[in-house]
Amino acid sequence: MKAAVIVFPGSNREGDMARALQQATGRKPDMLWHGDHELPAGTDLVVLPGGFSYGDYLRCGAVAGRAAIMDAVRAHAARGGLVLGVCNGFQILCESGLLPGVLMRNANLRFVCKMQHLRVERSDTPFTRHYAAGQTIEVAIAHGEGNYEADDATIERLEGEGLVAFRYCDAQGRVGGAANPNGSRNDIAGIFSDRRNVLGLMPHPENLIDPLAGGIDGRGLFESLAAA
Amino acid sequence: MKARVIVTLKNGVLDPQGKAIEGALSSLGVPGVASVRQGKVFDVELSLADKEAAREALTAACEKLLANTVIENFHIEL
């Protein structure tokens, strides 16, 4: 598994991401700058880390979504290559057209920073193989604009085609109500692209890979990718 | 040539910021405010002389970057 992490001005989770990837794959990912035009030969996985690319000016992820490197990322995804976007990375994937929908301001207008339970919706993807379908995991969330919105037709398609990757839930795995931290439609925390080779999610699995940090529920995602 | 681009949320898209402002106006006692939607204004200076060319350039700017056409409408004033 050869991974590349794209760093934008304002990214701030690239170090955590690189550490999680190295722990799972045994090799350091390439760190690429947003102004680069090509991915290193043989790249299997491209990761867009969390942070505040370009200060979140205009809209979250809007400017990064049009950065030079994103043409290479789009081509990589079109070839079936794996792409992971976490938090601001998810916003960038939506703004760049790699995933449908948009991340709006949290419905309660508050920045939320806390531990959050998620339900893993399916385990037959390169990102979730090391989890069980329906499993509840606990990871961290930290975002002001994680309220996933899309038009009714898009939501229907995501649900119908099994493209919802993770949903916000409580410790017992129940979705809805107070378990939803930001007002996302259908409690959506993460979605796959049509071919399930692109995953965007608001929570930060890369921060839960070490017991010292409070848990290791994030490891499954990186171990799945390492085996992909 | 000076131009103004106004980007607003489409009808039906939840606008949490507009709702918060609406609530604040109501608590300030401003009468008659039925609802508030928040948008963005871009004042653009163009080096183009032709109005049609300017409109075309600004439309491209909106579709490529200024507006997220999934949730936003744009309006160009020349």
Jot down its keywords:
heterodimer; A: 228 residues; alpha/beta; Rossmann fold; 9-stranded mixed beta sheet; 5 helices; 11 strands; B: 78 residues; alpha+beta; Mth169, Chain: A; 3-stranded antiparallel beta sheet; 2 helices; phosphoribosylformylglycinamidine synthase activity (chain A); PRibForGlyAmidine_synth_PurQ (chain A); hydrolase (chain A); EC 3.5.1.2 (chain A); ATP-binding (chain A)
Characterize the biggest β-sheet of chain A: 9 strands, mixed
Helix content of chain A: 10-25%
Assign the CATH architecture of chain B: 2-Layer Sandwich
Order of helices and strands of chain B: EHEHE
Radius of gyration of chain B, in Å, reads 16 Å
| Span of the ends, CA to CA of chain A | 7 Å
Indicate the proportion of strand residues of chain B.
25-35%
The best one-word shape of chain B is elongated
- Tally the beta strands of chain B: 3
Strand order of the largest sheet of chain A: 2-1-3-4-11-10-9-6-7
Order of helices and strands of chain A: EHEEHEHEEEEHEEEH
Class of chain B, according to the CATH hierarchy? Alpha Beta
| Oligomeric state as shown | heterodimer
Number of helices of chain B: 2
Q: What does the main sheet of chain B amount to?
A: 3 strands, antiparallel
Radius of gyration of chain A: 16 Å
Instruction: Tell me the greatest interface.
Output: A-B, 20 and 11 residues
CATH homologous superfamily identity of chain A: Class I glutamine amidotransferase (GATase) domain
Report the top-level CATH class of chain A. Alpha Beta
Keywords (chain B): ATP-binding, Cytoplasm, Ligase, Nucleotide-binding, Purine biosynthesis
Family (chain B): Belongs to the PurS family.
Pathway (chain B): Purine metabolism; IMP biosynthesis via de novo pathway; 5-amino-1-(5-phospho-D-ribosyl)imidazole from N(2)-formyl-N(1)-(5-phospho-D-ribosyl)glycinamide: step 1/2
Subcellular location (chain B): Cytoplasm
